[in-house]
Design brief:
This protein has twelve helices and 15 strands. It is of the alpha/beta class. The protein folds into two domains: 227 residues, Type I PLP-dependent aspartate aminotransferase-like (Major domain) (Aspartate Aminotransferase, domain 2, 3-Layer(aba) Sandwich), CATH 3.40.640.10; 117 residues, Aspartate Aminotransferase, domain 1 (Alpha-Beta Complex). An eight-stranded mixed sheet has the order 1-9-8-5-4-2-3-14, sandwiched between helices. The longest helix is centred in the C-terminal third of the chain and has 19 residues. The protein is globular and about 70 Å long. The two termini are 27 Å apart. Bound molecules: pyridoxal-5'-phosphate (PLP).
């Protein structure tokens, strides 16, 4: 059993009370009052016009492509330095991913994106805000507008992160947040899609098997998906949203402790000017093989992870076009995600840093 996990669930204490309430109402189904409360709390927090609770952020990304009418023959530009779930919905739709590398911010490079927009004319761009930090989404939005591409923000990891005081996930046509087990907040698996009211209602329809409303029998003019979240999971989400600010503050505190202990030994992921990240995971580059550190930490029952392996290095993606300087190859070669659970105390961070210090000699 691990002593320290990477980013385990951290309950607020209210979850069981709300689950009990859900049980008493017998809404043990993908309908019920907690779903609306969860959607409203996220929409209010990020200042989005509307929100839809889903079984995952991946489902949310898939729905956005469906809503935008993206299908076979279409191209979609996507962050290269990300988790596969940013890209796989493009494949679900039979469209073609165009990979865009990152710059020294570790986020999508706007210059590389501009080249991809000029040469490939993608219909949409899926921008990931990685590790809880904001990408240069203001510049990327301008580029998307200029070249007539829709911007979809994969803010799965960056709930609460802002640029110029505006929440990540709300710059583009749509944004998604993940409530997977290791995220800033969790519903034990789930996602929220945000965007304008009408398309969000269309997404709700598609997420519930595209059953035509106001008909007594099951009438279908198109096909949909079973992508809704349960009322029980939403009850957990409502309780989690009550501590969102506290959790962000603690993640940032943990990052500061790592900085204090490792200032001369590691190069941490930057926060771009005028942005505020949630520091979901503290991530850093080291001048030694990160797998050596990972294994030493594992021996001490401490979980860490390599940084995302860039999409262009994945066998699945070997035939996709790539734009950029391949900066992310160096990040993958040198980087590690360090334990960042919000129940951690300074002594825990000190213990992790002590093991890392030993590895660095
Ligand atoms: C960048 C990124 N995009 C998408 C996802 C998918 O989220 P979910 O697990 O809720 O589908 C994740 C995390 O799992 C992620 O880290």
């Amino acid at each position: 059993m691990m002593r320290l996990f990477l980013s385990p669930p951290h309950m607020s204490g209210k979850e069981l009370e709300y689950i009990q309430e859900a049980f008493e109402s017998n809404y043990i189904a993908p309908v019920g009052p907690f779903l609306e409360r969860f959607e409203k709390s996220v929409a209010k927090f990020v200042q989005a016009p509307a929100a839809l609770a889903l079984c995952s952020a991946t489902a949310g990304l898939h729905l956005t492509l469906r809503l935008l009418g993206i299908g076979p023959g279409d191209k979609v530009a996507v962050s290269d330095f990300t988790f596969i779930a940013s890209l796989s919905p493009i494949l679900y739709q039979g469209a073609t991913p165009i990979l865009v590398g990152c710059d020294q911010s570790w986020q999508m490079d706007p210059m590389a994106l501009e080249e991809a927009l000029q040469k490939e004319r993608p219909k949409a761009v899926i921008l990931t805000h990685i590790y809880g930090q904001s990408a240069d989404v203001a510049t990327i939005k301008e580029l998307c507008d200029h070249y007539g591409a829709q911007l979809i923000e994969d803010a799965a990891e960056s709930l609460g992160a802002t640029l110029n005081g505006k929440y990540t996930g709300t710059f583009g046509t749509f944004g998604v947040y993940s409530f997977n087990g290791n995220k800033l907040l969790t519903t034990g698996g789930g996602g929220i899609l945000v965007g304008p009211k009408e398309p969000i209602e269309r997404a709700r329809f598609l997420a519930t098997q595209a059953r035509e409303p106001d008909v007594e029998w099951y009438e279908h003019k198109t096909y949909g998906y079973n992508y809704r979240l349960s009322n029980i999971a939403a009850a957990i989400g409502v309780a989690q949203m009550e501590v969102v600010q506290e959790r962000i503050a603690k993640k940032r505190q943990i990052f500061e402790w790592y900085q204090e202990f490792l200032s001369d030994k590691a190069h941490f992921m930057p926060e771009i000017p005028r942005s505020f990240g949630n520091r979901w995971l503290t991530t850093a580059l080291f001048n030694t093989d990160p797998l050596h550190i990972l294994r030493e930490l594992k021996n001490e029952r401490i979980e860490s992870r390599p940084l995302w392996k860039p999409m262009h290095m994945q066998p699945l993606c070997k035939d996709f076009s790539y734009y950029g300087q391949k900066e992310e190859e160096e990040f993958f070669a040198k980087g590690l995600c360090l334990p960042s659970g919000t129940a951690m105390e300074k002594e825990d961070v000190a213990m992790v840093c002590e093991v890392i210090g030993r590895c660095l000699g």
